[in-house]
Write a structure and sequence with these properties.
By secondary structure, the chain is mainly alpha-helical.
């Protein structure tokens, strides 16, 4: 019994220490990135990312997308964003949606963009809600649906997204997906 308890305690301690090391590498990478020391940031993020740290994976995606400390490489950016996104890292999910929408590092695929934007929009992100509204409004990756466009514009507009507020006003002015209402359009 005591041996089992000691083994379990030791395992818990190892797990805790690796989590602290994990966070330390990612935090050290962030500090280096903020200082503009991309070489150190890259080393720290890579170490943490290879251990599965979603934030570090996302940060590597950003560095590869922008060409900071590495040659710009959209395919590498997508690869790192995907690893973080699959762990539920919201910013990576959003950026992956952008990459699919713009065709950077992947073939342009509006359906994939919609899929990633929806994951983020459903978590309350106003910019993703706006983007999803645009995609429904224009029929990109989805069947054109003015009702859905208005719904997503409304969600983003209610959070203060100015572009969504503008588009929602236009939707009310035109009566697309909502009852035409000039008063509501001016709000």
């Amino acid at each position: 019994m005591n041996t089992r308890l000691v083994s379990m305690s030791f395992a818990a301690l190892l797990l805790l220490c690796s989590a602290v090391s994990f966070a330390g590498e990612s935090e050290d990478g962030s500090a280096a990135y903020i200082r503009g020391d991309y070489e150190t940031a890259l080393a720290m993020f890579t170490k943490a990312a290879n251990k599965g740290d979603a934030r570090a994976q996302y940060n590597l995606g950003v560095m590869y997308k922008k060409g900071q400390g590495v040659p710009q490489d959209y395919k590498q950016a997508v690869s790192w964003y995907r690893k973080a996104a699959e762990q539920g890292y919201v910013d990576a999910q959003y950026n992956l949606g952008v990459m699919y929408y713009e065709g950077q590092g992947v073939l342009r695929d509006y359906k994939q963009a919609v899929s990633w934007y929806r994951k983020v929009a459903e978590q309350g992100d106003a910019e993703a809600q706006f983007n999803l509204g645009v995609m429904y409004d224009e029929g990109q990756g989805v069947t054109q649906d003015y009702n859905q466009a208005a719904l997503w514009y409304r969600k983003a507009a209610d959070q203060g997204n100015a572009k969504a507020q503008l588009n929602l006003g236009a939707v009310y002015y035109e009566g697309q997906g909502v009852t035409q209402d000039y008063v509501e359009a001016l709000k």
